[in-house]
Amino acid sequence: MSKHEGTERGGQSNSDNSEEKDSAAVKALFYNSKTTKPRPPKPSNAVTIAVSSRTLFNMVKERKVFEEEGLERYVAHQLELEDQPFTPGVSFPFVKALMNVNARLRELYPDSEELFDIVLMTNNHAQVGVRLINSINYYDLTIERFCMTGGESPIGYLKAYMTNLYLSKDSMKVQEAIEEGIAAATMFACDSENELSDTQLRVAFDGDAVLFSDESEIIVKEHGLDSFFRHEKEFENKPLAQGPLKCFLEALGKLQRKFYAKNQRINCPIRTYLVTARSAASAGARVLKTLRSWGLEVDEALFLAGAPKGPLLQKIRPHIFFDDQMFHIEGAQELGTIAAHVPYGIGQKYHKGKRIETSDAEKK
Fold first, then answer.
1. What residue spans carry the region label Disordered (predicted)?
2. What is the DSSP string of 1-17?
3. Set 117, 206, 208, 323: catalytic member
4. CB of 344 within 8 A of CB of 324?
5. pLDDT interval class at 67 (50, 70, 90)
6. For this structure, is 198 an active site residue?
7. Which domains does the chain have, with CATH numbers?
8. Edge-to-edge strands of the sheet including 145-148?
9. CA distances in angstroms from 166 to 250, 297, 311, listed in the order given
10. For 322-361, what is each residue's pLDDT tens digit?
């Protein structure tokens, strides 16, 4: 190696070290500065929930302006109403419940950064940001991290924000996020929402193709229930592969254990539910053993053996219910449950047990 090459490499190394020191200094200044306002946790420690602006706030009228009158009029409309806060959207109660959990965690662990961190992830123009900020401050929401992409898809930023869950009203973006390995779901509002707990975050999950892979659901769809029951019995002790929302249940469990460590299991502000169409005696053991093999648990497991999920969800009153099949989402909505569709697995090819016919063009 020539002296010149060595000098170049040494210079590059010094430059890299200098940048690292500068970055560390900036972080130290931000995180060590005194303030009475809660600091957002460091992303590496947090459970990061990315929500779109259209789930956090009701932007139906604004969306109509955009679709009918175009981008320029849409931005002008937002600027005209800049001081008028948006009304709450479908993910608003969920976000408030996350903040309540954070408040409880800070009481028990004042210096801990293992908290929920809520990120507003939107393809809105930056000019709309002022109205979004005003709305967030109006409702006293703790949302400090924004990503406004000016019409571009925000999906590429999800990994950079270390996202644990992404919620949107755009099913295409949700599909893209899941393909990138990020837990995601499309949120649906209901005409009349159930009254939700102010003190406990309640999250309900379907099993197959949500917490677990769709491997068993494929057996049902292609070979029928009897084959499915035999398959589940034969492989009872073989854990199912993980599904797209397993990592989010894992993140919830991590925070739950912090409360358990302080003898707060009974009063834990997070409660999780498995709400599955599986039969318990015929196909339930494999599910529970899979969770056990992962070191995870749910607070309640409801095996419905094909019965409608809506009435049970109406009793649970979750802040969010995840399912891969739209007819379960629709049934939940009808009875006032906020539901989120996970577009994953073979269930996307079926509706109410019947295969969705595709055109020749789609098959190609």
1. 1-45
2. --HHHHHHHHHHHHHHH
3. 206
4. yes
5. confident
6. no
7. 47-187 (3.40.50), 201-360 (3.40.50)
8. 145-148, 116-122, 47-51, 163-168, 184-188, 339-341, 320-323, 201-205, 270-276, 300-303
9. 15, 22, 27
10. 999 999 999 999 999 999 999 998 878 776 666 666 544 4
